[in-house]
Design a protein that fits this description.
By secondary structure, the protein is an alpha+beta fold. Helices cover 64% and strands 19% of the residues. The chain has a domain of 69 residues. A hairpin with a 2-residue loop joins strand 3 and strand 4. Helix 3 crosses helix 5 and helix 4 packs antiparallel against helix 5.
Length: 206
């Protein structure tokens, strides 16, 4: 009986203790981040990727590759076949060409949008990224992490986004509107590229 009473008392205390510890840890991390003069803060962005962001990103990857070029050529070919079929009264060819013409610009986009919606639904907190010359501070809700530039493998600019890769298929997708205008985006990309280049040089010397 006493054990049950103790369990009922201890469990809530442990739960609240962990919660308070996370709050203090997050507060300490934020204080560290905000000390710009000590850590030489260069950039800081707060954002949350939306369905629209992921939809643009997925299409950006597709249509900046060979696959996207093939999609465009195929769609234009089907448009030509559709117009020819309508001109000559080829009903069967016209139906086939019409469905094929709509596949990439309409039917495929429905699947892309549904995928983007699932990706966005998995994100429930804002992401805060803070950059110094040596480190990157990451905050997502109550979770926080610090990584160094050696963890960043590459940086790539795609339409409306800047992506920092931490591994194959993994990284930070930063909307350009969170960074600023085109000039600020360009400056940020150059800053990241310089940091990555510097780390690679140090690794080569070792």
């Amino acid at each position: 009986m006493y054990r049950r009473i103790l369990c009922h008392i201890i469990k809530p205390l442990m739960h609240w203790g962990k919660k308070i510890a996370r709050i203090f840890a997050r507060s300490a991390c934020r204080e560290r981040i905000l000390k710009k003069e000590h850590y030489n803060m260069r950039y800081q962005f707060i954002f949350r990727n939306t369905t629209k962001d992921f939809w643009k990103l997925n299409n950006g990857y597709t249509y900046s590759s060979l696959v996207g070029t093939v999609n465009i050529v195929f769609t234009l070919s089907m448009l030509g076949l559709l117009l020819t079929s309508l001109h000559h009264g080829w009903t069967l060819y016209g139906i086939f060409a019409g469905i094929a013409f709509l596949y990439f610009p309409l039917i495929q986009q429905i699947f892309v949008y549904r995928k983007a919606k699932r990706q966005a639904a998995a994100i429930t907190e804002d992401t805060r990224l803070s950059f110094t010359d040596k480190e990157i501070f990451i905050e997502v809700g109550d979770q926080h992490q610090t990584i160094t530039w050696k963890n960043i493998l590459a940086i790539k600019r795609v339409p409306t986004f800047t992506v920092l890769y931490t591994g194959k298929g993994n990284g930070f997708v930063i909307p350009n509107h969170a960074i600023g205008d085109k000039e600020k985006v360009r400056e940020f990309i150059l800053f990241c590229a310089d940091r990555i280049k510097e780390v690679n040089k140090k690794n080569e010397k070792k």
